[in-house]
Write a sequence for this structure.
């Protein structure tokens, strides 16, 4: 687990995670998995696509999670 990725669901986060927070977590994940802080120019497109895919999956996960009978986005 990348230690700089924080939990984005309530109650760990008092309010709904912002798009910026979700994208930052996705970026940290892709950096960790790829081993690159910043990809070379020839890998930039695939790196960016991966960040966007992880961000979309994260947003969907947070939308669908149930926390004590409510979805995570409603729990705040």
């Amino acid at each position: 687990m990348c230690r700089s990725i924080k939990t984005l669901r309530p109650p760990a986060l008092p309010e709904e995670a912002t798009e910026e927070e979700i994208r930052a977590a996705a970026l940290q994940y892709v950096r960790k998995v790829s081993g690159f802080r910043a990809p070379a120019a020839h890998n930039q497109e695939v790196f960016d696509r991966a960040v966007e895919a992880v961000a979309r999956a994260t947003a969907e996960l947070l939308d669908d999670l149930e926390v004590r009978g409510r979805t995570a986005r409603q729990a705040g």
The first strand starts at residue 66 and ends at 67. The longest helix spans residues 44-64.
